[in-house]
Amino acid sequence: MLELRLTRAGLLKKVLESIRDLVTDANFDCAATGCSLQAMDSSRVAMLSLLLRPDGFEHYRCDRNISMGMNLANMARMLRCASDDDTVTINADDAQDKISDYEMKLMHITSENLEIPEAGYEAIVKMPASLFARICKDLGTIGDTVMISVTKEGIQFFTRGDIRTANIFCRKTTPVAKEKEAISIEMEKPVSLTLALRYLISFTKATPLAKQVTISMSYGRPIVVEYKMEIMDHIRFYLVPKVEE
Amino acid sequence: KQKQQVISRFFASK
């Protein structure tokens, strides 16, 4: 038996809106420790992982682990019927073929689950989520890829298009900066990665979920773009960097 | 020319 109740449907709506461009169908794996989701985009270049902690819900009951395969567009369509401050309840019985209230069909999705190490990145930048979103959107009008370079001074975004180049440098702020404006850098060594902008732009759909975004980078590893939610834990996006052939 | 690899190359299966 699974029972989840959230008094702010808006939060779940925001979570769904932030992932449904990237992934069409996904398994919500619910356990006593929380609801998690891990899914790759259709081209298998990007991936997301999401954790919704039990204490983020007003009521959370999960008697045994259950994996609910859902079509995210359908789920979003149903949740659109709820106002942001409405209460949403998700029940799934052990038959596992529907969630009641919404009577939405569940799907059987075979997906590969990957073990993702959390630590050991060469550079970790925290910056305002809205600033990162604006940079990605602006650069997306110019080029297809962006080179993100982190040094101890700051983070640089460089793109090249058919007709012009663009270069944005965000300097690390002082420790006294206000949280919503702060840019902090933890770095072992400078890192520079080239990434497809359309995926980064898709990740920034999660901007309404958090004030700050954490960008973790290492040479030769997927970049991690993490949004930490106030009450629900996190959503992380992974993207494989482009390499010169 | 730039090459794009798939993400599962970078992580082990659970």
What does this structure look like?
The complex is a heterodimer of chains A (245) and B (14). Chain A is of the alpha+beta class. Chain A is globular. Chain A has 4 helices and 20 strands. Chain B contains no helices and 2 strands. Helix content of chain B is 0%, strand content 36%. Chain B is rod-shaped. With 14 residues, chain B is an all-beta fold. Chain B has strands at residues 2-4, 12-13. The model of chain B has no long low-confidence stretch (mean pLDDT 83). Classes of the chains: A alpha+beta (245), B mainly beta (14). Chain A binds chain B through residues 40, 43-47, 112-117, 145, 194, 196, 221-222, 238-240, 242-245, and chain B through 1-14. Strand 10 (114-115) of chain A pairs antiparallel with strand 2 (12-13) of chain B.
Shape summary of chain A: globular
Please compute the radius of gyration of chain B using only Cα atoms: 10 Å
Uncertain spans of chain A: none
Summarize the largest interface: chains and residue counts.
A-B, 24 and 14 residues
Oligomer: heterodimer
Helix content of chain B: under 10%
Q: Give the biggest sheet of chain A.
A: 9 strands, antiparallel
Query: Shape of chain B from CA axes?
Result: rod-shaped
Query: How big a fraction of the residues of chain B is strand?
Result: 35-45%
- Rg on CA atoms of chain A, Å: 19 Å
Alpha-carbon distance between the termini of chain A?
51 Å
Q: Which sequence of SSEs, written as H and E, runs from N to C of chain B? A: EE
Mean pLDDT of chain A: 90
Instruction: Determine the mean pLDDT of chain B.
Output: 83
Strand order of the largest sheet of chain A: 6-2-3-4-19-18-17-11-15
Judged by helices, strands and strand pairing, the structural class of chain B is mainly beta
Helix count from the secondary structure assignment of chain B: 0
Largest sheet of chain B: none
Order of helices and strands of chain A: EHEEEEEHEEEEEHEEEEEHEEEE
Strand content bin of chain A = 35-45%
Please give the number of β-strands of chain A: 20
